[in-house]
Design a protein that fits this description.
Blueprint lengths: L1 H17 L9 H9 L2 H9 L2 H15 L8 E2 L14 E12 L7 E6 L7 E5 L3 E8 L8 E3 L20 E7 L5 E6 L6 H6 L4 E6 L1 H5 L10 E9 L9 H4 L9 E4 L2 E2 L1 E7 L1 E8 L6 E5 L5 E6 L2 E9 L1 E4 L4 E7 L9 E4 L5 E11 L16 H5 L2 E8 L6 E2 L11 E3 L5 E8 L8 E5 L5 E5 L14 E4 L4 E6 L5 E7 L2 H5 L3 E6 L1
Parallel strand pairs: 1-13, 2-5, 4-9, 10-14, 13-21, 22-25, 24-31
Antiparallel strand pairs: 2-3, 5-7, 6-8, 8-9, 10-11, 11-12, 14-19, 15-18, 15-20, 16-17, 16-19, 20-21, 22-23, 25-29, 26-28, 26-30, 27-29, 30-31
This protein binds CU-O-CU linkage and copper (II) ion (2 copies).
Length: 503
């Protein structure tokens, strides 16, 4: 314990000196290690002003690990949004403010879509012509962004699509992409992080003939469970005080909510259960595993099914990434005290396994026909993206976001290779989750090597490690101006974002 505190304090002292922080985002081990070996750094710690160090220490130390879920509340399942009428696939989505009882008997001020906190699930079928009436009932500007959806830029809800308080906009698009778990959230310039933090986030399920015929668990809320992971800091009045909790390097909290549920547990039957994981947090990375060490099966990435199921013991998701996994509760060695845990062992979601046996579902051997062609692999790199910096000193290709500046242009329907490089600094740097709007892309390589099996599928967000170079093959099906950015929401708000114009 003493050692841990010392290391953390040491780490923080270096942060203070160099004016930047990566304590939140770099794997602890790696960081502690590099800190311990550096004698010079050790000396600077001795010189540190104790007060500054204590304060910084406190604020950082508090946010590092998550409290264990006690499992006292059954997980809430977002309702599936009803269509406006029977004739069309038309929805109304309202951004609202409200009060939510997250803690027993206490009202927390929150934001939500069509409710006080988070949003409903919108279900589309491939081929649907979808109409969404978006209404801003907040008293500040917002936008409605459909993360992962392949739509024309004027329906994408980026920072150019501001909807003022009391105003509304109807968007329309055809769903042409395959089955996937996507999500929606606001994207107003400089305010995305705060609005998401306060509760604006919802799910989109796209289904198609393939997804409904594979035989996978698909009983919504029963054996097909969405899990939106978000960490928050509640003040002593149990309020979300973004201004106080905010960290320029990504706001991290000690309290986990899943689908807005505090201390959640999930009751399941002895059957295969599909968990649709969404890292919906502002900045925290999660590495999910079962506390028994059992493996689970990943079936889908951000934008669709993997070709083949992949057995894993753990999976890391950086902010905005999704993965669908299947846990077979009829096959586990023990069902007592079973839980989904984070890398550091903190209990995220305890499972209560009932004696009932559930539905028979299967995980087919072949789920998709995703492919990366020779041609795509051999295309030259035509766009380079360099991610750099920390705190509010974050840039892409040395620049901060400027809504008037177009950084790249690309032809509609033409595949290009982008290379995303995370340039380290003296501190080593930190992971940046990199996201591109309006499209799903393919990972060609990570540092020249084939991506891991479970990333050989459609992606719209990727983690990029310090000094890592990721090549992707990307095509836009629609025209307009799209954002690309770091999905640590504070980095995005601090200008770690650029624009590509598709012509
Ligand atoms: Cu989740 Cu710019 O998006
Ligand atoms: Cu997006
Ligand atoms: Cu970043």
């Amino acid at each position: 314990m003493g050692i841990k505190i010392k290391i953390t304090a040491l780490a923080i002292s270096i942060l203070v000196i160099s004016g930047c922080s990566n304590a939140n985002s770099q794997p602890d081990e790696e960081m502690d290690h590099s800190m311990m070996n550096d004698e010079e750094m050790d000396h600077s710690m001795m010189d540190m002003d104790d007060d500054v160090m204590e304060n910084e220490h406190m604020s950082h130390d508090e946010v590092v690990s998550l409290n264990d879920s006690t499992g006292e509340n059954e997980l809430k399942i977002p309702s599936m949004l009803e269509r406006d009428n029977k004739e069309e696939v038309a929805y109304t989505v309202r951004a609202q403010k409200g009060k939510t009882e997250i803690f027993d008997g206490i009202e927390t001020n929150t934001y939500g879509y069509n409710g006080t906190f988070l949003g409903p699930m919108l279900r589309f079928d491939k081929g649907d012509i979808v109409k969404i009436r978006t209404i801003n009932e907040l008293d500040e500007n917002t936008t409605f962004h459909w993360h992962g959806l392949e739509v024309a830029a004027d329906a994408d809800g980026g920072p150019h699509d501001v909807i003022k308080p009391g105003e509304e906009k109807i968007i329309e698009f055809k769903v042409e992409q395959e089955a996937a778990t996507l999500w929606f959230h606001p994207h107003p310039e400089g305010k995305t992080a705060e609005q998401v933090y306060n509760g604006l986030a919802g799910l989109i399920y796209i289904e198609d003939d393939n997804s409904t015929s594979l035989g996978l668990p698909n009983d919504y809320g029963k054996n097909d469970i969405p899990l939106i992971f978000q960490d928050k800091t509640f003040d002593d009045k149990k309020q979300l005080n973004y201004g106080a909790a905010m960290n320029d390097d990504g706001t991290i909290g000690d309290t986990l909510l899943i689908n807005g549920t505090l201390n959640p547990k999930l009751t399941v039957k002895k059957e295969k259960v599909r968990l649709r994981l969404l890292n919906g947090s502002n900045a925290r990375n999660f590495t999910f595993k079962l506390n028994t060490g059992d493996s689970f099966i990943q079936i889908a990435t951000d934008g669709g099914f993997l070709n083949d199921p992949v057995a894993l013991k753990e999976i890391t998701l950086t902010p905005s990434e999704r993965a669908e996994i299947v846990v077979d509760f009829s096959q586990l060695n023990t069902t007592n005290d079973l839980a989904l845990i984070n890398e550091d062992g903190s209990i995220l979601l305890p499972f209560e396994v009932s004696d009932q046996s559930g539905k028979i579902s299967r995980i087919p051997g072949k789920m998709n026909n995703f492919s990366l062609t020779e041609e795509e692999m051999n295309l030259p790199v035509t766009k380079k993206v360099e991610l750099f910096g920390m705190m509010d000193q974050v840039t892409i290709n040395g620049k901060k976001f400027d809504s008037e500046r177009i950084d790249f242009t690309q032809q509609q329907g033409v595949t290009e290779v982008w290379e995303i490089y995370n340039k380290p600094d003296e501190m080593g740097g930190m992971i940046h989750p990199f996201h591109i709007h309006g499209t799903q892309f393919k990972i060609i390589s990570r540092d020249g090597k084939e991506p891991p099996e479970n990333e050989r599928g459609w992606k719209d967000s990727i983690s990029v490690q310090p000094d890592e170079r990721v090549k992707i093959a990307i095509q836009f099906k629609h025209k307009g101006v799209y954002m690309f950015h770091c999905h640590i929401l504070e980095h995005e708000d601090n200008g770690m974002m650029g624009q590509v114009k598709v012509e």
